[in-house]
């Protein structure tokens, strides 16, 4: 990162409150999109035996919607902890690539600060933070926190509400709330579209996950899609 980039970052840091509000404003539509599948996740967790206290602990410590849904799909009594941990790692392994994409903008930061920012990273905050950094030529910590922190807190609150109201409403998937999860990701992926070549790992992951879902019992389609997608991104990456 050049000295000019660092100076631009210092200017953005000086405008942190305004940048935070800008991030909050941009995150608001995504926060609304979180509502349906946060309720679904909280409701499903209660059906699996989680309490209304354990649900926010799970969603707060493992801030990754896909891996949380995968863990619930594999949850049994007693749970196979090693399997759930392995699948969670595989599903969240995409964060390795996401963090690598952000690393050029974080190199000038102290490691503790950078790791704290990455803890709050989810697919939506990563995409919005990276797009903003590329557009402005510098990474705005205030903007990123406005997006990431608000999405993090809203996700915990939403899943907790789902755990509380789920037993009252019954199976809330019958209202179509579960469709919000793929809808948000499709919109996010559309905004990141860079052409067919860059989308090849997505296609590989989709085909492998679909085949595993059709041919193998259980939730093995989740790690199958995750592993194949990461492997395809590695193999097909340009030098």
Automatic annotation (TrEMBL):
Pfam families: AzlC. Its main location: membrane. Keywords: Cell membrane, Membrane, Transmembrane, Transmembrane helix, Transport. InterPro entries: Brnchd-chn_aa_trnsp_permease. The keyword Chaperone does not apply. The chain crosses the membrane at residues 27-46, 80-102, 143-169, 181-199. It is a multi-pass membrane protein. It is found in: Cell membrane. Belongs to the AzlC family. PANTHER family: INNER MEMBRANE PROTEIN YGAZ (PTHR34979). This is AzlC family ABC transporter permease. It comes from Plastorhodobacter daqingensis.
């Amino acid at each position: 990162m050049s000295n000019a980039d660092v100076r631009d970052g210092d200017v953005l840091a000086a405008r942190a409150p305004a940048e935070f509000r800008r991030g909050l404003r941009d995150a608001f539509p995504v926060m609304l999109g979180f509502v349906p599948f946060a309720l679904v996740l909280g409701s499903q967790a209660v059906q699996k035996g989680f309490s209304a206290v354990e649900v926010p602990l799970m969603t707060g410590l493992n801030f990754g919607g896909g891996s949380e849904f995968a863990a619930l799909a594999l949850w049994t009594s007693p749970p196979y902890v090693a399997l759930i941990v392995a699948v969670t790692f595989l599903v969240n392994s995409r964060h390795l690539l996401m963090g690598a994409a952000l690393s050029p903008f974080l190199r000038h930061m102290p490691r503790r600060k950078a790791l704290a920012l990455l803890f709050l990273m989810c697919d939506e905050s990563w995409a919005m933070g990276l797009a903003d950094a590329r557009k402005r030529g510098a990474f705005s910590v205030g903007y990123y926190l406005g997006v990431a922190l608000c999405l993090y807190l809203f996700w915990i609150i939403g899943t907790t509400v789902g755990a509380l109201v789920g037993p009252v409403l019954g199976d809330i998937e019958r209202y179509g709330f579960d469709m919000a999860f793929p809808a948000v990701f499709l919109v996010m992926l559309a905004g990141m579209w860079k052409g067919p070549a860059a989308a090849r790992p997505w296609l590989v992951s989709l085909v492998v996950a679909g085949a595993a879902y059709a041919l193998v019992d259980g939730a093995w389609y989740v790690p199958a899609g995750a592993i194949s997608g990461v492997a395809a991104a590695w193999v097909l990456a340009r030098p």
